[in-house]
Design a protein that fits this description.
377 residues, alpha+beta, ten-stranded mixed beta sheet, two-stranded antiparallel ribbon
Length: 377
């Protein structure tokens, strides 16, 4: 079963997702410059949303992306009653997890040339996405292996240790959804069950600049104490998500109850979570005007981004959002007819819109209830 979300959302002037120059990210699409919000930005806002925290934090089903693995394992080993000297020895190779096959520095190879003992690194070489439930079992495995190897432990390389530990499988909703790629044998790779597109604006954009100054409250002299500028734009974005239901269940160990809860939380978070970029400056806290959900037994993902090859625009009494909705509805009908797509559809919107073979729902909770009924089996 395939579940797809299509969202149209207009943002007031904002800089939600910046590039390396500080400008709002953009892209060429259909021969026109468009506003863009990266999929990485959208996924992070979803992972850290109130919807996900309320649904999964209490049960420890949210992952952590961090380089603080040695410190997290230190706390677990300390809770297991391991003495500080043994903890230090156990954690010495942990910082290299993810870079086991790389060339070791002098410090990692036993210390500096003067023979001084190297300090245990407190951060790992690689940013690791892991579930909280993985920490205690990993600490226990490390401790058991340390005791088994005894004096041989100090001579073991990181790759030998991770091979002995075996891959750790996460029990985490966000890892199950968005996947995990790691080069360490200590962690199991997870194929993402959810695909998230870069959001692009349905309209063509022209970047604008805010020239601003700051005054020194205590200085008596006139004039600015600081001068700067920030780029921004205002766009109507098309957001697209798809969920492979069987893949999500498999990533969650076959737990259909948690998988169903995850899909409903994702719908809420996709609709309500906001990127945090420059929000203190622009406060672009705008909710979507349209959330369309499709459910299909056939695994054929279809983005409707091509509805906006010709940019949407305001004309007459129709707003940019109205034109975007009309373009998407028209394109959906044409693609559905051409490829004989028969998805089950429902939507929630702030206005009375019409979509081919789609049931209007009065609210986001009503749309969630409708979706829950579709995946109840």
């Amino acid at each position: 079963m395939l579940i797809q979300f299509h969202i149209l959302q207009n943002y007031a002037p904002s800089n939600l997702n910046r590039d390396d120059t500080g400008a709002p990210k953009d892209a060429m699409f259909g021969g026109y410059r468009r506003g863009r919000i990266s999929s990485q930005c959208l996924k992070r806002s979803i992972r850290r949303s109130e919807a996900f925290k309320d649904a999964f934090e209490k049960d420890g089903l949210l992952g952590i992306r961090t380089r603080q693995l040695p410190e997290l394992l230190r706390k677990e080993l300390d809770a297991l009653g391991v003495n500080p000297e043994d903890i230090k020895a156990i954690l010495a190779p942990v910082a290299r997890f993810g870079r086991e096959s790389g060339k070791k520095s002098a410090e990692e190879d036993g210390g500096e040339a003067d023979g001084k003992e190297a300090e245990v690194e407190t951060t790992s070489k690689q940013l690791i996405f892991l579930g909280r439930s993985e920490l205690r079992p990993m600490a226990e495995k490390l401790l058991a292996l340390y005791k088994k190897m005894d004096k041989k432990w100090a001579k073991l390389e990181s790759k030998d240790i991770t091979k002995e530990l075996g891959p750790s499988a996460p029990r985490s909703v966000d890892i199950a959804m968005f996947g995990r790629m790691t080069t360490s044998a200590a962690f199991e790779d997870v194929q993402a069950a959810v695909q998230v597109a870069h959001a692009i604006s349905t309209n063509a954009i022209t970047q604008e600049f805010d020239y601003y100054t700051a005054m020194d409250d205590l200085a008596g002299d006139p004039g600015a104490a600081m001068i700067d500028d920030v780029e921004f734009n205002s766009s109507t974005y098309y957001k697209y998500f798809n969920i492979h239901w069987e893949g999500l269940k498999a990533n969650l160990g076959g737990d259909a109850v948690v998988a169903r809860k995850a899909v409903l939380a994702l719908l809420e978070a996709a609709a309500t979570a906001q990127p945090s970029g420059k929000q203190n400056t622009f406060a672009a806290q705008n909710l979507p005007d349209l959330i369309l959900v499709e459910v299909s037994q056939k695994n054929l993902p279809v983005s409707y981004a091509n509805a906006f090859l010709k940019p949407s625009s305001k004309y007459g009494e129709k707003s940019l959002m109205d034109d975007s909705v009309a373009k998407m509805a028209d394109y959906m009908g044409r693609v559905g007819k051409t490829f004989a797509i028969e998805n089950t559809r429902a939507f929630a919107a702030t206005q009375e819109y019409e979509f081919p073979n789609a049931k209007a729902q009065e609210s986001l909770p009503a749309l969630q209830k409708w979706l829950a009924a579709q995946i109840a089996g």
